[in-house]
Write a structure and sequence with these properties.
With 293 residues, this protein is α/β, with parallel strands linked by helices. It has three domains: 75 residues, Orthogonal Bundle (Multidrug-efflux Transporter Regulator, Chain: A, Domain 2); 74 residues, Methyltransferase, Methionine Synthase (B12-binding Domains), Chain A, domain 1, CATH 1.10.1240; 127 residues, Cobalamin-binding domain (Rossmann fold), CATH 3.40.50. Helices cover 55% and strands 10% of the residues. The chain is built from twelve helices and eight strands. The longest helix has 37 residues. It is globular.
Length: 293
């Protein structure tokens, strides 16, 4: 904090959860927030601005768009917040899948999606639940068909919610796929949702795309970014070798973003391949892309 009633951009970013680059972008695009400046030219935000930004971020988590929220007064923003529902129990999630209680599970997931909004649902429910189910399957606590049932249930919920976020002409243009041998696609769907909500135009190709097809599709669709997902079942060493080959085949002007539980920061990635270690890094990469163009 700079003064008792004013906050630095670092304070605002830390408290609200809004990246600094995004705050600056909103200032340029929407004229808000319009902070004061200190004698060094650094931004100073008021407590009212901070309160409003916290609300805007919470409403973003419930699927609202910042461009529509920023002009609204504080009281109206508060009235738009929906109550959250209880966090899920990991053991109960697996138990319901094993008992075949899909109706109750689907109803609970729908309530979470409504309460949290699509972004909040992805970060707080879908991502951890996918990890729990994958680990239970690996321990033979869930049958393959039960894991597939969970996957299709999640896909249906997210696809339905994503309908309002489809857009043509967004930026950047991102194609999403996996390499041969990687069949899992829930990671791609989570990334697709976050990218679309961030203003990107997304071209989803589904899993297991051969190198030649990736190269041709990237050129024909004039993409800015190729996004690839690697699950825990994919060997990280193999992924790095394949990424080296793909990077050499693809136009150097096209960025390659990679992520998933099959990769970690211990690997050395080829130049021009950016590792996004978690879903929040996808949003940071989007903010950085908009800042750099």
């Amino acid at each position: 904090m700079i003064m008792s009633e004013h906050y630095s951009i670092s304070d605002v970013s830390r408290i609200s959860g809004i990246p600094k680059d995004l705050l600056r972008m909103w200032e340029r695009r929407y004229g808000y927030p319009a902070p004061q400046r200190d004698e060094n030219g650094d931004r100073l935000y008021s407590i009212d601005q901070l309160d409003k930004l916290v609300l805007i971020r919470q409403l973003q988590d419930q699927g609202k768009r910042p461009g529509k929220l920023i002009p609204l007064p504080l009281d109206e923003l508060k009235s738009m917040l929906q109550p959250e529902v209880a966090e899920f129990d990991e053991e109960e999630l697996v138990s319901q899948l094993r008992r075949g209680e899909t109706s109750g599970l689907r109803q609970w997931l729908q309530k979470q999606l409504l309460a949290l909004g699509l972004r909040g649902f992805i970060h707080r429910v879908m991502a951890p639940a996918t990890t729990v189910v994958g680990e239970a399957w690996a321990r033979d606590e869930l049958a393959t068909y039960e894991e597939h049932l969970f996957t299709e249930m999640m896909k249906g919920l997210v696809r339905q919610s994503l309908a309002e976020h489809y857009r043509i002409g967004g930026e950047p243009r991102v194609m999403l796929t996996t390499l041969s041998g990687e069949k899992h696609s829930l990671g791609l769907l989570m990334v697709e949702a976050l990218l679309r909500m961030g203003g990107a135009e997304v071209i989803p190709f589904g899993p297991e795309m051969p190198f030649g097809d990736i190269q041709e599709a990237a050129m024909n669709h004039r993409v800015d970014v190729i996004g690839l997902s690697f699950s825990a079942n994919f060997k990280g060493d193999d992924a790095v070798v394949m990424l080296n080959g793909l990077r050499q085949m693809v136009d150097p002007g096209i960025r390659i973003w990679v992520g998933g539980s099959g990769l970690d920061n211990g690997y050395v990635f080829p130049e021009g391949v950016e590792h996004l270690p978690d879903l929040y890094a996808v949003e940071r990469a989007m903010a950085e892309w908009h800042r750099s163009v």
